[in-house]
Amino acid sequence: MDKLRIVGGQRLQGAVTISGAKNAALPQIAASLLSAHPLELTNLPAVTDVDNMLAVVERHGAEVTRSAHGARIDTGAAVSKETSYDTVRRMRATMLVLAPLLARFGEARVSLPGGCAIGARPVDMHVKALATLGADIDIENGLIVASAPKGMNGARIVLGSPSVGATETAMMAATAARGETEILNAAREPEVADLAACLNAMGAHVEGAGTHRILIEGDRGWRPATHDIIPDRIEAGTYAVAAAITGGQLELTHARLEHLASVVQLLEAAGVSVWPGDRGLVVARDGPLRTVDITTEPYPGFPTDLQAQFMALMCCAEGASLLRETVFENRFMHVPELMRLGANITLQGTTALVRGGEPLKGAQVMATDLRASVCLVLAALVCDGETTINRIYHLDRGYEQLDRKLHLCGAEIERISA
Ligand code: UD1
Asked: 416: which strand partners?
Protein backbone atom coordinates (compact mmCIF):
# COMPACT_ATOMS: atom_id res chain seq x y z
CA MET A 1 0.00 0.00 0.00
CA ASP A 2 1.27 3.48 -0.89
CA LYS A 3 2.45 5.90 1.80
CA LEU A 4 3.03 9.62 1.93
CA ARG A 5 6.19 11.10 3.40
CA ILE A 6 5.88 14.76 4.36
CA VAL A 7 8.51 17.06 5.86
CA GLY A 8 6.79 19.95 7.59
CA GLY A 9 7.64 23.62 7.70
CA GLN A 10 7.10 24.91 4.15
CA ARG A 11 4.84 27.92 3.52
CA LEU A 12 2.53 27.04 0.65
CA GLN A 13 2.30 29.52 -2.18
CA GLY A 14 0.84 29.38 -5.67
CA ALA A 15 -2.32 28.21 -7.39
CA VAL A 16 -4.27 24.97 -6.96
CA THR A 17 -6.80 23.83 -9.53
CA ILE A 18 -9.96 22.66 -7.77
CA SER A 19 -11.38 19.55 -9.46
CA GLY A 20 -15.01 18.65 -10.07
CA ALA A 21 -17.02 17.67 -6.99
CA LYS A 22 -16.85 13.95 -6.20
CA ASN A 23 -20.14 14.11 -4.28
CA ALA A 24 -21.86 15.71 -7.26
CA ALA A 25 -20.33 13.23 -9.72
CA LEU A 26 -21.43 10.05 -7.90
CA PRO A 27 -25.23 10.61 -7.98
CA GLN A 28 -25.03 11.90 -11.56
CA ILE A 29 -23.26 8.73 -12.71
CA ALA A 30 -26.04 6.74 -10.98
CA ALA A 31 -28.68 8.98 -12.63
CA SER A 32 -27.40 7.95 -16.08
CA LEU A 33 -29.26 4.65 -15.49
CA LEU A 34 -32.63 6.46 -15.53
CA SER A 35 -32.60 7.06 -19.26
CA ALA A 36 -31.73 4.99 -22.32
CA HIS A 37 -30.07 8.06 -23.86
CA PRO A 38 -26.37 8.81 -23.35
CA LEU A 39 -25.21 11.22 -20.65
CA GLU A 40 -21.92 13.01 -21.04
CA LEU A 41 -20.37 14.34 -17.82
CA THR A 42 -17.54 16.86 -17.94
CA ASN A 43 -15.30 18.17 -15.13
CA LEU A 44 -15.31 14.68 -13.57
CA PRO A 45 -12.65 14.41 -10.88
CA ALA A 46 -10.01 11.73 -11.41
CA VAL A 47 -10.55 9.92 -8.09
CA THR A 48 -11.11 6.25 -7.36
CA ASP A 49 -14.69 6.70 -6.01
CA VAL A 50 -15.63 7.95 -9.49
CA ASP A 51 -13.82 5.00 -11.13
CA ASN A 52 -15.75 2.66 -8.83
CA MET A 53 -19.13 4.26 -9.57
CA LEU A 54 -18.46 4.09 -13.31
CA ALA A 55 -17.57 0.41 -12.85
CA VAL A 56 -20.91 -0.11 -11.04
CA VAL A 57 -22.97 1.31 -13.93
CA GLU A 58 -20.84 -0.70 -16.38
CA ARG A 59 -21.73 -3.82 -14.42
CA HIS A 60 -25.37 -2.87 -14.95
CA GLY A 61 -24.75 -2.93 -18.71
CA ALA A 62 -23.78 0.70 -19.43
CA GLU A 63 -21.08 1.48 -21.96
CA VAL A 64 -18.62 4.02 -20.55
CA THR A 65 -16.18 5.99 -22.70
CA ARG A 66 -13.66 7.92 -20.61
CA SER A 67 -11.75 11.08 -21.50
CA ALA A 68 -9.24 12.96 -19.31
CA HIS A 69 -11.89 14.63 -17.11
CA GLY A 70 -15.09 13.31 -18.54
CA ALA A 71 -17.14 10.26 -19.37
CA ARG A 72 -19.86 9.41 -21.86
CA ILE A 73 -22.23 6.92 -20.30
CA ASP A 74 -24.49 5.10 -22.70
CA THR A 75 -27.03 3.02 -20.81
CA GLY A 76 -29.03 1.99 -23.89
CA ALA A 77 -28.14 -1.63 -23.34
CA ALA A 78 -28.39 -1.55 -19.53
CA VAL A 79 -30.26 -4.37 -17.82
CA SER A 80 -31.61 -4.44 -14.30
CA LYS A 81 -29.32 -6.43 -12.05
CA GLU A 82 -28.34 -6.89 -8.49
CA THR A 83 -25.70 -4.62 -6.96
CA SER A 84 -23.52 -6.81 -4.78
CA TYR A 85 -22.64 -6.41 -1.13
CA ASP A 86 -19.01 -6.05 -2.09
CA THR A 87 -19.58 -2.85 -4.12
CA VAL A 88 -21.95 -1.22 -1.61
CA ARG A 89 -19.71 -2.17 1.31
CA ARG A 90 -16.76 -0.45 -0.34
CA MET A 91 -18.69 2.68 -1.26
CA ARG A 92 -21.99 3.57 0.35
CA ALA A 93 -22.86 5.92 -2.52
CA THR A 94 -23.53 2.79 -4.61
CA MET A 95 -26.94 2.90 -2.86
CA LEU A 96 -27.74 5.74 -5.28
CA VAL A 97 -28.32 3.25 -8.15
CA LEU A 98 -31.36 1.84 -6.32
CA ALA A 99 -33.82 4.57 -7.40
CA PRO A 100 -32.69 4.82 -11.07
CA LEU A 101 -32.79 1.02 -11.53
CA LEU A 102 -36.22 0.79 -9.90
CA ALA A 103 -37.54 3.71 -11.96
CA ARG A 104 -36.24 2.36 -15.26
CA PHE A 105 -36.82 -1.38 -14.89
CA GLY A 106 -39.57 -1.63 -12.28
CA GLU A 107 -37.29 -3.60 -9.96
CA ALA A 108 -33.93 -3.36 -8.27
CA ARG A 109 -31.94 -5.38 -5.78
CA VAL A 110 -29.21 -3.50 -3.95
CA SER A 111 -27.27 -4.77 -0.97
CA LEU A 112 -27.77 -2.96 2.34
CA PRO A 113 -24.63 -0.93 3.08
CA GLY A 114 -24.27 -2.25 6.64
CA GLY A 115 -22.12 -0.58 9.28
CA CYS A 116 -19.39 1.75 8.16
CA ALA A 117 -16.43 3.55 9.58
CA ILE A 118 -18.30 6.80 10.31
CA GLY A 119 -21.27 5.59 12.28
CA ALA A 120 -24.27 3.43 11.55
CA ARG A 121 -25.48 5.48 8.53
CA PRO A 122 -28.86 3.82 7.99
CA VAL A 123 -30.81 4.02 4.71
CA ASP A 124 -34.32 4.14 6.19
CA MET A 125 -35.16 7.51 4.61
CA HIS A 126 -34.15 6.30 1.12
CA VAL A 127 -36.43 3.28 1.52
CA LYS A 128 -39.32 5.31 2.94
CA ALA A 129 -39.16 7.83 0.09
CA LEU A 130 -39.43 5.05 -2.50
CA ALA A 131 -42.31 3.44 -0.60
CA THR A 132 -44.13 6.81 -0.55
CA LEU A 133 -43.92 6.84 -4.36
CA GLY A 134 -45.60 3.43 -4.37
CA ALA A 135 -42.70 0.98 -4.57
CA ASP A 136 -42.84 -2.32 -2.65
CA ILE A 137 -39.74 -2.70 -0.56
CA ASP A 138 -38.54 -5.86 1.19
CA ILE A 139 -35.33 -6.68 2.91
CA GLU A 140 -34.22 -10.21 1.94
CA ASN A 141 -30.90 -11.77 2.88
CA GLY A 142 -29.22 -8.40 3.31
CA LEU A 143 -30.64 -7.03 0.05
CA ILE A 144 -33.09 -4.20 -0.47
CA VAL A 145 -35.55 -5.67 -2.94
CA ALA A 146 -37.59 -2.89 -4.53
CA SER A 147 -40.30 -3.35 -7.10
CA ALA A 148 -42.84 -1.16 -8.86
CA PRO A 149 -43.86 -3.19 -11.92
CA LYS A 150 -46.55 -0.67 -12.90
CA GLY A 151 -44.34 2.35 -12.22
CA MET A 152 -44.40 4.85 -9.35
CA ASN A 153 -46.78 7.74 -8.68
CA GLY A 154 -45.87 11.27 -7.59
CA ALA A 155 -46.51 12.07 -3.92
CA ARG A 156 -45.47 14.33 -1.06
CA ILE A 157 -42.29 13.05 0.59
CA VAL A 158 -41.41 14.54 3.97
CA LEU A 159 -37.87 13.68 5.02
CA GLY A 160 -37.29 13.20 8.75
CA SER A 161 -33.98 15.07 8.40
CA PRO A 162 -32.35 16.67 5.36
CA SER A 163 -30.28 13.68 4.24
CA VAL A 164 -28.28 14.34 1.08
CA GLY A 165 -28.51 10.78 -0.21
CA ALA A 166 -32.22 10.36 0.61
CA THR A 167 -33.03 13.66 -1.15
CA GLU A 168 -31.12 12.46 -4.21
CA THR A 169 -32.85 9.05 -4.15
CA ALA A 170 -36.29 10.69 -3.85
CA MET A 171 -35.52 13.20 -6.60
CA MET A 172 -34.29 10.59 -9.08
CA ALA A 173 -37.23 8.25 -8.43
CA ALA A 174 -39.72 11.13 -8.76
CA THR A 175 -38.42 12.13 -12.21
CA ALA A 176 -39.77 8.82 -13.51
CA ALA A 177 -42.98 8.72 -11.42
CA ARG A 178 -46.35 9.73 -12.89
CA GLY A 179 -47.50 13.20 -11.80
CA GLU A 180 -46.04 15.68 -9.36
CA THR A 181 -43.80 15.03 -6.36
CA GLU A 182 -43.01 17.46 -3.57
CA ILE A 183 -39.98 16.78 -1.37
CA LEU A 184 -40.10 18.64 1.93
CA ASN A 185 -37.19 19.14 4.34
CA ALA A 186 -34.90 18.39 1.38
CA ALA A 187 -31.13 18.68 1.72
CA ARG A 188 -29.93 22.02 0.30
CA GLU A 189 -26.37 21.03 -0.58
CA PRO A 190 -24.98 22.40 -3.89
CA GLU A 191 -24.49 18.77 -4.99
CA VAL A 192 -28.28 18.24 -4.77
CA ALA A 193 -28.85 21.34 -6.93
CA ASP A 194 -26.23 20.09 -9.39
CA LEU A 195 -27.97 16.71 -9.65
CA ALA A 196 -31.21 18.58 -10.43
CA ALA A 197 -29.43 20.56 -13.16
CA CYS A 198 -28.11 17.30 -14.63
CA LEU A 199 -31.56 15.64 -14.46
CA ASN A 200 -33.12 18.69 -16.14
CA ALA A 201 -30.53 18.52 -18.93
CA MET A 202 -31.57 14.86 -19.35
CA GLY A 203 -35.19 15.96 -19.83
CA ALA A 204 -36.59 15.96 -16.28
CA HIS A 205 -38.47 18.87 -14.71
CA VAL A 206 -37.10 19.61 -11.23
CA GLU A 207 -37.61 22.95 -9.47
CA GLY A 208 -36.42 24.28 -6.14
CA ALA A 209 -33.34 22.06 -5.66
CA GLY A 210 -31.00 23.91 -3.32
CA THR A 211 -33.97 24.89 -1.13
CA HIS A 212 -35.83 22.77 1.43
CA ARG A 213 -38.77 22.24 -0.99
CA ILE A 214 -38.24 20.50 -4.30
CA LEU A 215 -41.00 20.05 -6.89
CA ILE A 216 -40.71 17.43 -9.60
CA GLU A 217 -43.00 16.85 -12.53
CA GLY A 218 -42.37 13.24 -13.40
CA ASP A 219 -42.36 11.07 -16.49
CA ARG A 220 -41.44 13.79 -18.99
CA GLY A 221 -39.33 11.59 -21.28
CA TRP A 222 -35.56 11.60 -21.64
CA ARG A 223 -33.06 12.97 -24.13
CA PRO A 224 -29.28 12.82 -24.63
CA ALA A 225 -27.51 15.29 -22.33
CA THR A 226 -24.21 16.88 -21.40
CA HIS A 227 -23.57 18.28 -17.94
CA ASP A 228 -20.57 20.09 -16.42
CA ILE A 229 -20.02 19.14 -12.76
CA ILE A 230 -19.59 21.91 -10.15
CA PRO A 231 -16.19 22.44 -8.48
CA ASP A 232 -15.54 20.52 -5.27
CA ARG A 233 -16.23 22.82 -2.32
CA ILE A 234 -14.73 20.32 0.13
CA GLU A 235 -11.49 20.09 -1.85
CA ALA A 236 -11.44 23.92 -1.99
CA GLY A 237 -12.00 24.11 1.79
CA THR A 238 -9.19 21.60 2.34
CA TYR A 239 -6.66 23.69 0.35
CA ALA A 240 -7.92 26.82 2.12
CA VAL A 241 -6.86 25.13 5.38
CA ALA A 242 -3.51 24.19 3.77
CA ALA A 243 -2.85 27.89 3.06
CA ALA A 244 -4.05 28.90 6.53
CA ILE A 245 -2.16 26.27 8.52
CA THR A 246 1.18 26.97 6.78
CA GLY A 247 0.79 30.77 6.88
CA GLY A 248 0.91 30.80 3.09
CA GLN A 249 -1.17 32.10 0.21
CA LEU A 250 -3.04 29.95 -2.32
CA GLU A 251 -5.28 30.82 -5.21
CA LEU A 252 -8.00 28.18 -5.45
CA THR A 253 -8.82 28.16 -9.14
CA HIS A 254 -12.55 27.53 -9.88
CA ALA A 255 -13.53 27.61 -6.15
CA ARG A 256 -16.92 29.28 -5.65
CA LEU A 257 -17.45 31.66 -2.75
CA GLU A 258 -21.22 31.06 -2.79
CA HIS A 259 -20.67 27.38 -1.90
CA LEU A 260 -18.25 28.20 0.93
CA ALA A 261 -19.94 30.97 2.92
CA SER A 262 -19.93 29.21 6.32
CA VAL A 263 -16.37 28.01 5.77
CA VAL A 264 -15.07 31.46 4.81
CA GLN A 265 -16.81 32.98 7.82
CA LEU A 266 -14.94 30.63 10.16
CA LEU A 267 -11.63 31.11 8.34
CA GLU A 268 -11.94 34.87 8.74
CA ALA A 269 -12.82 34.49 12.42
CA ALA A 270 -9.66 32.39 12.76
CA GLY A 271 -7.51 35.21 11.34
CA VAL A 272 -7.34 34.00 7.74
CA SER A 273 -8.01 36.33 4.79
CA VAL A 274 -10.17 35.19 1.86
CA TRP A 275 -10.94 37.25 -1.21
CA PRO A 276 -12.16 36.64 -4.74
CA GLY A 277 -9.38 36.39 -7.33
CA ASP A 278 -9.48 36.44 -11.13
CA ARG A 279 -9.87 32.67 -11.36
CA GLY A 280 -11.44 31.68 -8.04
CA LEU A 281 -10.68 32.43 -4.39
CA VAL A 282 -7.47 33.53 -2.73
CA VAL A 283 -6.74 32.39 0.83
CA ALA A 284 -3.86 33.77 2.88
CA ARG A 285 -2.66 34.17 6.44
CA ASP A 286 0.18 36.29 7.77
CA GLY A 287 -0.98 37.06 11.34
CA PRO A 288 -1.49 34.60 14.21
CA LEU A 289 -4.22 31.96 14.07
CA ARG A 290 -7.16 32.52 16.42
CA THR A 291 -9.30 29.78 17.98
CA VAL A 292 -12.90 29.33 16.81
CA ASP A 293 -15.66 26.97 17.95
CA ILE A 294 -17.18 24.87 15.19
CA THR A 295 -20.46 22.98 14.86
CA THR A 296 -21.09 20.83 11.80
CA GLU A 297 -24.54 21.14 10.25
CA PRO A 298 -26.35 20.35 7.03
CA TYR A 299 -25.74 22.94 4.28
CA PRO A 300 -25.62 25.96 4.41
CA GLY A 301 -24.06 25.23 7.84
CA PHE A 302 -20.44 24.21 8.28
CA PRO A 303 -19.83 20.87 6.47
CA THR A 304 -19.00 17.70 8.39
CA ASP A 305 -16.64 16.86 5.51
CA LEU A 306 -14.35 19.72 6.65
CA GLN A 307 -14.50 19.06 10.40
CA ALA A 308 -11.28 17.00 10.52
CA GLN A 309 -9.33 19.54 8.45
CA PHE A 310 -10.42 22.40 10.75
CA MET A 311 -9.43 20.33 13.78
CA ALA A 312 -5.88 20.15 12.39
CA LEU A 313 -5.99 23.94 11.96
CA MET A 314 -7.20 24.49 15.54
CA CYS A 315 -4.31 22.35 16.84
CA CYS A 316 -2.10 25.24 15.65
CA ALA A 317 -4.10 28.11 17.18
CA GLU A 318 -3.09 29.16 20.67
CA GLY A 319 -5.91 28.39 23.14
CA ALA A 320 -8.96 26.16 23.37
CA SER A 321 -11.60 25.46 20.72
CA LEU A 322 -14.65 23.21 20.71
CA LEU A 323 -15.62 21.16 17.67
CA ARG A 324 -19.09 19.66 17.76
CA GLU A 325 -20.16 17.02 15.21
CA THR A 326 -23.93 16.88 14.72
CA VAL A 327 -24.23 15.13 11.34
CA PHE A 328 -22.52 11.78 11.99
CA GLU A 329 -21.80 10.02 15.24
CA ASN A 330 -18.30 8.60 15.51
CA ARG A 331 -16.57 10.93 13.09
CA PHE A 332 -13.48 11.53 15.18
CA MET A 333 -11.20 8.75 13.99
CA HIS A 334 -8.53 11.32 13.22
CA VAL A 335 -8.28 12.35 16.90
CA PRO A 336 -5.95 9.55 18.13
CA GLU A 337 -3.77 9.96 15.04
CA LEU A 338 -3.50 13.76 15.56
CA MET A 339 -2.54 13.01 19.16
CA ARG A 340 0.34 10.86 17.87
CA LEU A 341 1.62 14.09 16.29
CA GLY A 342 1.47 15.79 19.72
CA ALA A 343 -1.99 17.39 19.55
CA ASN A 344 -3.83 17.94 22.83
CA ILE A 345 -7.45 16.86 22.26
CA THR A 346 -10.12 15.65 24.69
CA LEU A 347 -13.11 13.83 23.29
CA GLN A 348 -16.47 13.75 24.99
CA GLY A 349 -19.25 12.17 22.97
CA THR A 350 -19.75 14.24 19.86
CA THR A 351 -17.58 17.13 21.04
CA ALA A 352 -13.82 17.53 20.81
CA LEU A 353 -11.94 20.05 22.94
CA VAL A 354 -8.71 21.08 21.23
CA ARG A 355 -6.02 22.86 23.24
CA GLY A 356 -3.83 24.24 20.51
CA GLY A 357 -0.57 26.08 20.17
CA GLU A 358 2.01 23.44 21.11
CA PRO A 359 4.24 22.51 18.16
CA LEU A 360 3.28 19.27 16.38
CA LYS A 361 6.00 16.69 15.78
CA GLY A 362 6.29 14.28 12.85
CA ALA A 363 5.49 10.60 13.45
CA GLN A 364 4.08 7.50 11.73
CA VAL A 365 0.29 7.75 11.42
CA MET A 366 -2.44 5.82 9.69
CA ALA A 367 -5.21 7.11 7.44
CA THR A 368 -8.64 5.76 8.46
CA ASP A 369 -11.13 7.45 6.17
CA LEU A 370 -11.10 10.10 3.49
CA ARG A 371 -11.41 13.30 5.52
CA ALA A 372 -9.44 11.92 8.49
CA SER A 373 -6.58 11.12 6.11
CA VAL A 374 -6.41 14.58 4.64
CA CYS A 375 -6.44 16.14 8.10
CA LEU A 376 -3.25 14.21 8.87
CA VAL A 377 -1.67 15.54 5.66
CA LEU A 378 -2.55 19.11 6.71
CA ALA A 379 -1.12 18.61 10.20
CA ALA A 380 2.03 17.04 8.73
CA LEU A 381 2.64 20.21 6.68
CA VAL A 382 3.42 22.05 9.93
CA CYS A 383 4.99 19.24 11.98
CA ASP A 384 8.61 19.50 13.07
CA GLY A 385 10.38 16.84 11.04
CA GLU A 386 9.03 13.99 9.00
CA THR A 387 5.58 12.36 9.03
CA THR A 388 4.72 9.13 7.26
CA ILE A 389 1.05 8.55 6.50
CA ASN A 390 0.19 4.93 5.86
CA ARG A 391 -2.81 3.51 3.99
CA ILE A 392 -3.38 6.52 1.76
CA TYR A 393 -5.76 4.74 -0.62
CA HIS A 394 -8.51 6.59 1.28
CA LEU A 395 -7.09 9.90 -0.03
CA ASP A 396 -7.16 8.70 -3.61
CA ARG A 397 -10.89 7.98 -3.23
CA GLY A 398 -11.70 11.68 -3.03
CA TYR A 399 -8.70 13.92 -3.75
CA GLU A 400 -7.33 14.16 -7.27
CA GLN A 401 -3.51 14.13 -7.20
CA LEU A 402 -3.31 15.60 -3.71
CA ASP A 403 0.45 15.01 -3.40
CA ARG A 404 1.17 16.61 -6.79
CA LYS A 405 -1.06 19.64 -6.13
CA LEU A 406 0.62 20.25 -2.74
CA HIS A 407 4.11 19.68 -4.16
CA LEU A 408 3.49 22.31 -6.88
CA CYS A 409 2.78 24.88 -4.13
CA GLY A 410 5.97 24.14 -2.26
CA ALA A 411 5.14 21.27 0.11
CA GLU A 412 7.86 18.71 0.73
CA ILE A 413 5.73 15.67 0.02
CA GLU A 414 6.55 12.36 -1.60
CA ARG A 415 4.45 9.31 -2.45
CA ILE A 416 6.22 6.08 -1.64
CA SER A 417 4.80 3.20 -3.66
CA ALA A 418 4.63 -0.12 -1.89
C1 UD1 B 1 -23.31 12.71 1.84
C2 UD1 B 1 -21.88 12.86 1.35
C3 UD1 B 1 -20.92 12.82 2.53
C4 UD1 B 1 -21.32 13.88 3.56
C5 UD1 B 1 -22.78 13.75 3.94
C6 UD1 B 1 -23.26 14.86 4.85
C7 UD1 B 1 -22.01 11.86 -0.83
C8 UD1 B 1 -21.62 10.75 -1.73
N9 UD1 B 1 -21.59 11.78 0.44
O10 UD1 B 1 -23.42 11.43 2.45
O11 UD1 B 1 -19.60 13.09 2.06
O12 UD1 B 1 -20.52 13.72 4.72
O13 UD1 B 1 -23.61 13.77 2.76
O14 UD1 B 1 -23.03 16.10 4.27
O15 UD1 B 1 -22.64 12.81 -1.25
N16 UD1 B 1 -29.38 9.10 7.66
C17 UD1 B 1 -30.37 8.31 8.21
N18 UD1 B 1 -31.20 7.61 7.34
C19 UD1 B 1 -31.06 7.67 5.99
C20 UD1 B 1 -30.04 8.48 5.44
C21 UD1 B 1 -29.20 9.18 6.30
O22 UD1 B 1 -30.52 8.24 9.41
O23 UD1 B 1 -31.85 7.02 5.29
C24 UD1 B 1 -28.47 9.87 8.55
C25 UD1 B 1 -27.02 9.46 8.44
O26 UD1 B 1 -26.72 8.34 9.23
C27 UD1 B 1 -26.32 10.72 8.91
C28 UD1 B 1 -27.23 11.84 8.42
O29 UD1 B 1 -28.50 11.22 8.15
O30 UD1 B 1 -26.24 10.75 10.31
C31 UD1 B 1 -26.76 12.56 7.18
O32 UD1 B 1 -26.50 11.62 6.16
P33 UD1 B 1 -26.67 11.95 4.62
O34 UD1 B 1 -26.91 13.41 4.44
O35 UD1 B 1 -27.65 10.99 4.05
O36 UD1 B 1 -25.22 11.61 4.08
P37 UD1 B 1 -24.86 10.81 2.76
O38 UD1 B 1 -25.79 11.18 1.66
O39 UD1 B 1 -24.63 9.39 3.08
From this structure: 3
* Residue of 163, 191, 399 best suited for mutating to test ligand 1, as the one with most atoms within 8 Å of CB: 163
The pTM assigned to this predicted structure is 0.97
Same domain, yes or no, for 163 and 284? no
Q: Report pLDDT digits (tens) over 330-367.
A: 899 999 999 999 999 999 999 999 999 999 999 999 98
Same domain? For 314 and 197 the reply is no
Residue 66 burial (10 A CB sphere; 0-12, 13-18, 19+): middle
Clarify whether residues 194 and 281 are in a common domain.
no
Cα of 145 from ligand 1 centre, angstroms: 21
pLDDT band, very low/low/confident/very high, at 142 (cuts 50, 70, 90): confident
Cα 312 to Cα 354: distance, rounded to the nearest angstrom: 9
Is 109 in the same domain as 186?
Answer: yes
Q: Which residues contact 362 (CB under 8 A, 6 or more apart)?
A: 6, 7, 8, 341, 380, 383, 384, 385, 386, 387
Q: Catalytic annotation on 116?
A: yes
From 116, 315, 316, 409, active-site residue: 116
Q: How many domains does the chain have?
A: 2
CA 115 to chain centre: 18
Q: Which of 139, 144, 164 to mutate to test the pocket of ligand 1 (most atoms within 8 A of CB)?
A: 164
- CA 125 to ligand 1: nearest atom: 23
Give the C-alpha separation, 358 to 300, whole Å.
Answer: 32
